[in-house]
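YM 10:42: YuiA family protein sequence, as discussed on the call
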Amino acid sequence: MKVQGLDTKNCDYCSGTGYFQLVLGGSETCSCCGGTGKKKD
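YM 10:58: structure's back
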């Protein structure tokens, strides 16, 4: 599956959003991509 118009793939952990939604409310920066939403190569 390819995403058109993007050269870099989205981070697998946060699905490209750069952060996680917390169950109790608020959000937390994705530690895998550092909040960029891009997969590190």
